[in-house]
Amino acid sequence: MSKRVKGWTLVVALSAFLSGPSLAADTLAKDLTSTIALLGLPCGQVVSARRLKDNDYIATCKDKNRYRVFVNPQGRVVATKQ
Fold it and tell me: Which domain holds residue 38?
């Protein structure tokens, strides 16, 4: 295999590996945006999310609102303004 082919193989493999987490983050942000909107809270779009524990996140919206989105003991999804 030539050096050029090996180089391109490495580039493709690294791009696939490094893009995985960003795709997951985009999906999480979209899911949290939908959840907050369905709960009737102002947000617009989630721009960042931080996982606290299972089913418990802090979401920061484009309009600077921050919400803690979690599942309460009764099994319902709740968002509280932070």
Answer: 3-81
Number of folded domains that form the chain: 1
Please give the DSSP secondary-structure letter assigned to residue 2: -
Q: How confident is the model over 15-68, as pLDDT tens digits?
A: 555 445 555 668 889 999 999 899 999 998 999 999 999 889 999 999 999 999
Q: What is the CA radius of gyration of the chain?
A: 18
pLDDT of the residue at 69: 92
Contact 24, 3 (CB under 8 A): no
Which pTM does this prediction carry? Answer: 0.70
H/E segment holding residue 58? strand 56-61
Q: Please name the residues in contact with 67: beta carbons below 8 A apart, sequence gap of 6 or more.
A: 36, 41, 43, 58, 59, 61, 79, 80, 81, 82
3-state secondary structure of 21: helix
Task: Return the structure tokens found at 57.
Answer: 């996140």
